[in-house]
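[09:14] KT: can someone run the structure on this one? pasting the chain below
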Amino acid sequence: MTPEFAAASDSARPLWLVWKDDALPPEAGDWPAQCGFSAKPGEICLLPDGAGALSGAIMGLGARSEAGRSRFALARAQALPKGDWRLAALPEGLDPDEAALGWLFGQYRFTRYKGGPSDGPHLVCPEGADADRLLAIARAEFLTRDLINTPASDMGPAQLEAAARTLADRIGARIEVTTGEALLQQNLPLIHAVGRAAAEAPRLIDIRLGDEGALLAIVGKGVCFDTGGLNLKPGASMALMKKDMGGAATALGLLAMLADTGAAKGLRLRVLIPAVENSVAGNAFRPGDVLTSRKGLSVEVNNTDAEGRLVLADAMALAAEEAPELMISLATLTGAARVALGPDIPPFYCDDEPTAAALQEAAMRVADPLWRMPFWQPYEPQIEPAIADLDNAPAGGMAGSITAALFLRRFAQGAARYAHLDIYGWQPAAAPGRPKGGVGQGARAILAALPRILP
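[09:31] RB: done, structure tokens below
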């Protein structure tokens, strides 16, 4: 589905947003009090006119002291009756862009298999908000959500490639795809090893946009389904593994944002997506195998369920050969990150202080939260086994997100700066602007931070 605003119209009904304990608009009279309206977050009071027809509505934002919880409050306004609405006034403390983006995010529905878009309420873009930019951001987020929500039966490596080609064609980008045995010929052995047991051939999707300016390389993990391989996951752990390509989905969403908002101008973008399915067959890679990466580093496989860092390693090594000014990896990589920070806050890793500061500031400013974690040098020996250069799954299980990030950093050498985001890509319970299901994480923060990182 496509996010949209209503055209400005005199017939659009007024909607007042109010903080708890603030004065209600005089147009409402005593009606809200008679209805027990208390301005709880998302609470709506419909206002009648003198003839009993609907004349407008009031929606609560909750306590001003808890404003952070209401940053996408307008997403809840999707519960309004259908028709066109306009904000009668924007209360102090609520940014017009943020309010409007909340509305757009609240429109999202995944309708591929059930139902269709409903003819719900429509909002006139608030005064002061940048409608074109917000619609571009929302369209990109909807793309990410749709890709994650689609099950592996309809979103395997071939379908992920098709989605990438559709986006590349639309924005005028160049795309090349290396598939199957050609991965070995092109020295991408880890991608081949992880994906060779699947029904669909593994592949590397390589998208380029722009010919001048600083080079930004974005690498997204595209494991379209993860059984765990021969270290087979239990059924409960496998249930959400259609989302294991959330890094790839977020990378494509970020590419769309950069292109459609104009932020890609003056940059050279390269998006690399290793697209595989980690399956079980007679030719599956095994625990104890030692694989040699594109970079020449040998990797001892101590758990076939730690496959994401393997496919990323080859793609990152390829990207690093061009010495990008910034490399960013996006991956649904470790359960350890979720244990530490929960589903809402992805950790990110970055050694460059100005880049890390820009990401942290932007994440908070645009309500796309990230939390910085350390590339902790004393843990380096944990990823160095006795018989190979690297271990893909250190024993003990401690600091799993950090050791995974340290593993990946070995393959980013050559990039001037590197940041890794260990995202979850899934909203386990509905929240304002974030229905249960696939969700983008980090893309808006990166978009907002880039002017400071690559001016």
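[09:33] KT: thanks! The domain at 135-453 is CATH 3.40.630.10 (Aminopeptidase).
[09:34] RB: yep, looked fine to me
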